[in-house]
Specification:
Elements (H helix, E strand, L loop, with lengths): L1 H15 L4 H22 L5 H10 L6 H7 L6 H12 L12 E2 L5 E2 L1 H14 L7 H4 L1 H12 L6 H11 L9 H16 L6 H10 L6 H9 L8 H10 L2 H9 L21 H18 L1
Antiparallel strand pairs: 1-2
């Protein structure tokens, strides 16, 4: 009986502290107002967009690799936001901790990951090159490769396993990550000067625009691709990205010789089908949705 009561109490507490979409948007709006004030007071040279995106991203992704992919921000910004929260009795800095929220559509979104992907795209100034693949769909495809490396089967069988058991379902490329990767470039593209991220995101998810995320993602990320060519186009970009190669090394699916991480042929033989299956499954998933 005590165990059952503890479970009920745990679920009750979890429900109390679940971040709602409205709370996330409201705190984001407050954070953006504080960063606008910071930029004005400190005469910061970084763009307002960069300060917002990199500040939120660093709440979860703060490694040196992420500083390369998303850039840095002034070291006193953290203390400035903390002081504002204390002075105004607000929770703006909590935005950096929202790993998963429920959208009005009932889908799950990794809120910080959304901003991390936008940060990499914005910092590299490209929807198709720079760090855009690494921080979004490409990096998560590499994580998917890590998740499935112990699965067995030929290429088609591995793709079926991914689509039925992993992609958008569980592992490092679950629903919250997938939705973030797809929506990040669209939301960033929608963001207009003078319009906040809070208003842009709210409008996107409270309208029907998110229902077109698959076709809109492809238009921005693979503008020259067709449904028939998307598999190969995605794989060519993925497999030729040296930064993704390094990520595969980190995940133990690529040889770790002196130059192994940079050589296209250094992928371990037993994972060749797994690598291709991870990217093909992602492309197939997109094609099936639009």
């Amino acid at each position: 009986m005590k165990s059952f009561q503890l479970i009920i109490l745990f679920l009750f507490i979890e429900n109390i502290y679940t971040v709602t979409f409205t709370e996330a948007i409201n705190n984001l709006a407050i954070l953006e107002s504080y960063i606008k004030e910071y930029k004005s007071e400190k005469s910061a040279t970084d763009s307002e967009n960069h300060l917002i995106l990199s500040y939120i991203r660093a709440g979860k992704y703060s490694s040196s690799e992420w500083s390369i992919a998303g850039g840095t921000f002034p070291s006193d910004l953290n203390s400035y936001i903390q002081a504002k929260d204390s002075e105004k009795n607000t929770n703006a800095q909590n935005v950096r901790t929202y790993e998963e929220i429920e959208l009005p559509s009932k889908e799950k979104l990794d809120f910080v990951h959304l901003f991390a992907v936008m940060n990499g795209i914005n910092y590299g100034n490209s929807f198709t090159g720079g760090y855009s693949s690494l921080v979004g769909w490409g990096g998560d495809s590499a994580q998917l490769l890590k998740d499935i490396k112990d699965e067995s089967g030929d290429l088609d069988q591995l793709i079926e396993i991914i689509l039925s058991k992993y992609l958008g379902i569980k592992g490092q490329f679950g629903e919250a990550d997938l939705v973030s990767d797809l929506d990040a470039p669209i939301i960033l593209n929608n963001k207009k000067d003078g319009v906040s991220f809070a208003d842009t995101i709210k409008s996107y998810y409270e309208s029907n625009e998110y229902k077109n995320r698959y076709s809109n993602f492809v238009k921005l990320t693979f503008p020259d691709s067709t449904k028939d060519s998307l598999r190969n186009d995605a794989f060519n970009r993925y497999s030729k990205d040296s930064l993704i190669n390094i990520l595969e090394c980190k995940y133990g699916v690529r040889s770790n010789g002196v130059f192994g991480c940079y050589l296209p042929g250094s992928i371990l033989t037993q994972y060749k089908n797994h690598q291709k299956a991870a990217v093909y499954a992602f492309a197939d998933y997109l094609v099936s949705k639009y």
